[in-house]
Write a structure and sequence with these properties.
Layout (H helix, E strand, L loop, with lengths): L3 H11 L4 E4 L3 E4 L15 E6 L2 E6 L7 E3 H8 L4 H16 L28 E3 L4 H9 L4 H8 L3 E3 L3 E3 L2 E3 L4 E8 L2 E9 L5 E5 L19 E5 L2 H6 L5 E3 L7 H5 L3 E5 L4 H12 L3 E3 L10 H7 L5 H7 L1 E2 L1 H9 L3
Parallel strand pairs: 13-14, 13-15, 15-16
Antiparallel strand pairs: 1-2, 2-3, 3-4, 4-5, 6-7, 7-10, 8-9, 10-11, 11-12, 16-17
Helix pairs in contact: 8-11
Length: 329
């Protein structure tokens, strides 16, 4: 349910004369940023609650308004922000005086609270299981869609290209693999099902977290690090992340007790593996008799191979790793 304070400041921002339908869960209005297109009575800007966060989202094509209420006011109506802070703080203090109002206390919260900027992009995507072409694409890649949602969250297909902060992301007819934080999207990786086109998006405030599955792992156990998401899934390993590239941010690497680098079997992957081996980390080194640049290719080429065990058998460290990697040049 929307708070009265959020509704009040949304109306102050867009103007009461522009408000359309209003319920306890959703308020729509004519968007002051894009004007809602050519239709005079169009009202595509919505204020609504999702998992405890008040969102402001314009559903008019390429409009840039996709944020929470706080950032909406900060970006477009900064004169209202101080008043909004004061009234929101007042509401919070009032709630604290009623111990039952916040529900159960979560004693498992991390010691260092992480705050990421999430983006409500779901309205522009369709669920992947609703797109037969995308489902067939995954089958051809030996990816079991039935396991994806259970382990890694919902995957999608782009219904249109996205304009985010003035940058065009060509994701129409692309499989969208979200980066999730507390069940909300803060970035994504996409790959087209019609042509060779890959797109990545990570909000500018989330630097250092362009890592798939980062918030689902046990950092105290061995973490298997892959370049690509399909490779991570194809490995058969459970405690996995994908870098959507070849390097992990130094701050994230420090958080891992036992990182295991399973990089691509190409020039870039081998060079990066060398660098991590020099630092004393465990690295996967692919035997020369096995064909395939990455683990998804290996899974397709060797359907009877237990890739998880295969990885374990080809993990090396220190001088032994460096010698083996040098002979691969």
């Amino acid at each position: 349910m929307l708070s009265l304070t959020d509704i009040k400041f949304f109306k102050l921002a867009v103007g009461s004369e522009n408000i359309g339908k209003e319920t306890e869960l959703d308020v729509n209005a004519k968007c002051p940023v894009c004007g809602d297109g050519k239709k005079k009575n169009s009202k595509r800007l919505h204020l609504y609650d999702k998992n405890g966060t008040t969102l402001v989202n314009c559903f008019n094509g390429d409009c840039s308004v996709h944020s929470n209420l706080w950032n909406f006011l900060k970006m477009y109506y900064p004169d209202l922000l101080d008043s909004y802070k004061r009234e929101t703080f007042g509401e919070t203090m009032k709630s604290l005086s009623n111990p039952g109002s916040f529900g159960t206390f979560n004693s498992n919260k991390p010691k260092e609270e992480i705050k990421l900027e999430t983006v409500p992009l779901e309205p522009y995507f369709s669920k992947i299981e609703e797109n037969s072409e995308a489902v067939d694409y995954l089958k051809n890649r030996c990816i079991d869609l039935n396991e994806i949602d259970k382990k890694f969250g919902q995957w999608y297909v782009g219904k249109q290209d996205l304009n985010i902060d003035g940058i065009l992301y060509k994701v129409q007819d692309s499989i969208i693999l979200p980066l999730y934080f507390e069940n909300k999207i803060y970035g994504f990786y996409s790959r087209s099902i019609k042509q060779k086109n890959f797109v990545t998006y990570n909000h500018s405030k989330n630097i250092g977290y362009k890592i798939w599955n980062w918030f689902n792992i046990d950092k105290t156990a061995p973490v298997f690090i892959f370049e690509g998401i399909f490779d991570a899934i194809s490995s058969g390993k459970k405690n996995i992340i994908a870098l959507i590239g070849a390097k992990i941010p130094a701050d994230r690497l420090k958080e891992l007790t036992n990182p295991v680098f399973c990089l691509d079997n190409d020039k870039t992957g081998i060079e990066n593996a060398k660098n991590y081996a020099k630092l004393g980390y465990n690295v996967y080194i692919q035997p020369n008799e096995i064909q395939g640049k990455d683990f998804n290719e290996i899974k397709k080429a060797y359907p009877n191979l237990n890739i998880s065990n295969f990885i374990n058998e080809n993990i090396f460290k220190g001088i032994q790793a460096l010698v083996k990697l040098t002979t691969k040049n």
